[in-house]
Amino acid sequence: MRKYDTILWDMDGTLLNTLDDLTDSVNEALAAFSLPLRTKTEVRAFIGNGVARLMELSVPDGRQNPRFEEIFAFFKTCYNKNYRCKTKPYDGLNALLSLMQARGYKMAIVSNKIDSALKELTELYFSETIHVSIGDYEGVRRKPYPDKVFEALRLLDTEKDRAVYIGDTEVDIQTARNAGIDCICVSWGFRDRDELEKAGAVRIIDAPQQLAEILD
């Protein structure tokens, strides 16, 4: 009997490469308010705790900036326009998802991404394999709180000791730890292997096909 029957996925940096669209949206908002732009490397490091935290780190003085809420609102308008422009699944992910589905795994996406964008991207790229996605919406705590993980397990009708969480940042590692489930990290996302190891990653994979080998 295999150890897991359920796979919970992070979205940004794990299933989808969203970095270009996020960077473009951040800089479009900053430019509109005559603020210094951010590099892709900076934005990559800021991702993981939702777009509010992304902008808090991107805007000079963060929430102390008197125009922060105005800038943040404009960023959301920009991202709503941009989030399907350059975003795409990482190579090999759709083939892996199809394989996992064929092997009978239950799957869901648990993300700090705005829920409406998350659901649209899930439908656009993963509609044939993933039917449960839980993003950021009012009244539910963001990762690393385990609330969304527990909701996904409830919707999938599975127990946490049969589930594994797949993610790419320290937030994902802490989320899995807080939920009491195992975590496998990917090195192709928004943190490199050294960063993941420093954050406490126990198992790291470098290519999608390695996950199938591990789960078998």
Largest sheet, order of strands side by side?
A: 5-4-1-6-7-8
CATH superfamily of the largest domain: HAD superfamily/HAD-like
Q: What is the succession of H and E elements? A: EEHHHHEHEHEHEHEHEH
Number of β-strand runs = 8
Low-confidence stretches: none
Shape, principal axes of CA atoms: globular
Radius of gyration over C-alpha positions, nearest whole angstrom:
17 Å
What is the average per-residue confidence, as pLDDT, rounded to a whole number? 96
Q: Would you identify the CATH architecture of the largest domain? A: 3-Layer(aba) Sandwich
Description:
The chain has 216 residues and is of the alpha/beta class. It has 2 domains: 6-17 and 87-215, HAD superfamily/HAD-like (Rossmann fold), CATH 3.40.50; 19-82, DNA polymerase, domain 1 (Orthogonal Bundle), CATH 1.10.150. Helix content is 46%, strand content 15%. It is built from 10 helices and 8 strands. The strands form 2 sheets. Strands 5-4-1-6-7-8 form a 6-stranded parallel beta sheet. Helix 1 (19-32) crosses helix 4, helix 3 crosses helix 4 and helix 5 (93-102) runs parallel beside helix 10 (208-215). The model has no long low-confidence stretch (mean pLDDT 96).
SSE arrangement:
Blueprint: E1 6-9, E2 16-17, H1 19-32, H2 40-46, H3 51-58, H4 68-82, E3 88-89, H5 93-102, E4 106-114, H6 115-126, E5 133-136, H7 147-156, E6 163-167, H8 170-179, E7 182-186, H9 193-198, E8 204-205, H10 208-215
Parallel strand pairs: 1-4, 1-6, 4-5, 6-7, 7-8
Antiparallel strand pairs: 2-3
